[in-house]
Amino acid sequence: MTLARLWGRGPFRSSILTVLSLGLLMAGVVARAAGVAGDQLFFSGLVLGFVTIVMARNELSGASWKTMALLTIHAVICLFIVGTLDRLLQHHRYRIDVTESHRFVLSPATKGLLAQLRGPLKVTVAFRSNSPGRFLARDLLATYRHQSPQVEVRFMDPDLKPSLANRFPGAASGALIVQYGEREKLVRRPTERHLSLAIHALLGTNLARVGFLTGQGEATPSDRGPLGYSLTRSVMEHENYKVVEIAPGSGIPKDLRVLVAPYPRVDPPETVMQSIAAFQKAGGSVLALLEPGEVHPRMRQMLQSWGVTWAGAQVYDLARFLQGDPGTAVVSKELGSYRSHPITEGLASTLFPGVSPLGFGPDAERRGWKPLATVSQESRSTLPDGKPGPTGELVVAAAARLDNAGRVAVLGDGDFMTNASLAKYPVSQELMMALINWLAERDELLGQWPDPPGPPRLILADRHYRALTAVTALGMPCLLLIIALYCWLEARRS
Questions:
Q1: Which CATH code is given to the segment(s) 108-203?
Q2: Per-residue model confidence as pLDDT tens digits over 78-90
Q3: What is the pTM assigned to this prediction?
Q4: pLDDT for 68-127, tens place per residue?
Q5: From start to end of 118-164, where are the E strands?
Q6: What stretch of H or E contains 205?
Q7: Do β-strands 175-180 and 208-213 pair in parallel, antiparallel, or remain unpaired?
Q8: What is the architecture, at CATH level 2, of domain 208-445?
């Protein structure tokens, strides 16, 4: 039996068109609930339903009133179910993301920030009309609006609004302007991490202070050389921290949230060690950065008081190293190098260009020490005097909250935060900021921030959306009408 003859049968034709119409209606309902423009699909379903009724009028002309009543009740019930489902999904939205990088859902950190909104969060997308950043921002903000009704979005072309460029000089080349209450912040990159950090800054009142100890030959945040920490300072300040340098003899400020103790070139004075211990016992958090090499007696004594042993050995990972350099260890989630901890959640990888292993006393577990990262089982190490050191799966980073006081983290390498390392391996800043956020007790910022890797996303401009609307709202019904007309003519000829 040919398609034309089969289509010529009224019940078959009506059934096919009814199924297609309901399918389009349901697709439109689901798309609208997911925060995607589903109005076109919904409208196409309504148009196709009307076409089905018009085409079936001949079959229904001789039907009894009972048949007409049953069909009417059937249509009313279908419309009621679709309408009710649409209302329910509009008020109880939920997304399921099956992509590996979770690019279509927001991170738990962002969801927590949006839950804190107590008023409208106004976001102005200031990109040129043909800029890719405009379309990336549009898709990203659609996800934010789906998560919180407090998010309000408007689009503005900076070329058509010169006053905007006068208020925000950086907006001339494209940016997001985020306003919450009376406060505003400029976001240059339309990514979830940058936008959520701006929201975090607008929700907060004061910047958390991070202090770097100086005066004993350590690298400093003001040093722009290869071994300095100026890039570290820039990253921290971008993520809502205020970085200060603590000069010798000035004391540790009481309002400091995190104290960073880089590896000193000379043994620090006893007063400095006492200040660090007093700061930690008073509830302050400390990040100790070590290096392979000379073990300073006072530094080792402080670590021992925390339950950590350190011999200054240099690790050579013979299984996980970078480009023929066993001295540069690669710590990666895929390789199983990270251990389960809030700090390591969502981290991808980190490179340690020269790392020293850590040891722990028998009461380490009781005191709360948790390993953060390890090297492979094939690792070897060499002590400063040239003798063989510990081997195997060595711990190179650990963290704890000691004695119900301040949080402490110890890393066997401080070079991963230097300007040279961050410029060459920007991925290492993820671990750095995870450490700082945990030490500053900003647990809401921990976790994965999806900047999707892998293939590029398909970016649709406004004209593409208009073309899709024309295809779904007009093209599909017209195509079905053409097919129906063709089948009707073929049936008449036969």
A1: 3.40.30.10
A2: 666 666 666 666 6
A3: 0.66
A4: 566 666 666 766 666 666 666 666 666 666 666 666 678 888 888 888 888 999 999 988
A5: 121-126, 151-156
A6: none
A7: unpaired
A8: 3-Layer(aba) Sandwich (3.40)
